[in-house]
């Protein structure tokens, strides 16, 4: 087996060099072979890790060329172990792109099944908050153990604020993965019957590689499934968006607004979503960001064009880490200007690395999206360009409870029980 894989691997490498017309095929094959090599390695963990990295590299290369192919995200999900959150993100994404990978639904169950069997009082390699979050999605995706949903959701939401506070900058990545996974749940992971997915799903041509199951035998979803997903999304927003002025939640807010901006331009889809979106909180969060803006930034935020960083070389854009995560999703297709991902000088690590200039760009992007949403319809979010303030339509103008103080604030804890006694 080993010999075969090595032989095939070097043959593919040769084909890649000599027959570039089929480059996409060779690259994906190299990814497959490296993945098989990883899978049969059960002695040396280091080798396993090495082959995982090699395989992931080929699939990312392939995915760069075909960002709307779900199959490649599915393979990346397998390679994302042991991070349950990353796996969930990739599996969900593989179903919400232009060419969804329907066959991948069964693999998603290999992530979900063991996780639904666990409970947070047991020792687990998955951190409790991730466990609870994946359980929420596991119940919604599989419809197994429906009773578990409210417990898992309460557990996740109860840990969330504290977790963001502690992770600080390290929440930028889980933040956008969580945000996108929740959007995928709202569109029903591409299941037949989800009313939002029905209006936004890509039209398939007859030669689609794997046709969806016929309407009557499909696992169809009901309005209750949508209500569950909306509840999870709304409650997550409610915790995250109360962290006014926290720059570490902006990757989450950014991916959320990309979704909302897309839906606002879909009159058949937005009525399903809008009533459970906390518009008022979003407006307050946006105003907090505006208060930190310089006057000369207004035209970029309020303009109709995607705010490209001025100082940046047109030919070598540097997308935000969450831009790569959004790329390929049905609702992000029109979000980026052409050529946005064309900078091939960025290697894999650089893409995901948060650099200092990202914070300012992200803030601009979020405000720009807020203005786009307000410009499409005044039914939800509104923007007054005279005073540079966001507001909401009267329907959504609720009282937001006085800013809650997170119980984790050390000032509230008084004496720490395990603090060393003063000498
Ligand atoms: C979680 O596991 C513990 C120990 O295995 C068990 O006693 C408890 O009943 C479990 N809780 C749930 C909700 O399954
Ligand atoms: C959204 O969540 C908040 C906080 O839990 C709640 O007050 C509000 O009623 C929810 N909105 C909807 C439409 O469910």
UniProtKB/TrEMBL annotation:
Single GO molecular function: telomerase RNA binding
Protein name: Telomerase-binding protein EST1A
A GO-annotated cellular component: telomerase holoenzyme complex
PANTHER family assigned: SMG-7 SUPPRESSOR WITH MORPHOLOGICAL EFFECT ON GENITALIA PROTEIN 7 (PTHR15696), TELOMERASE-BINDING PROTEIN EST1A (PTHR15696:SF0)
Pfam family membership, one: EST1_DNA_bind
Region (Disordered), start-end ranges: 203-222, 403-423
Segments forming domain DNA/RNA-binding: 56-163
Entry keywords, A to Z: Signal
Superkingdom of origin: Eukaryota
Biased composition (Acidic residues): 207-218
UniProt entry tagged with the keyword Signal: yes
BP term (GO), one: nuclear-transcribed mRNA catabolic process, nonsense-mediated decay
Lineage: Eukaryota, Fungi, Dikarya, Ascomycota, Pezizomycotina
Signal peptide: 1-23
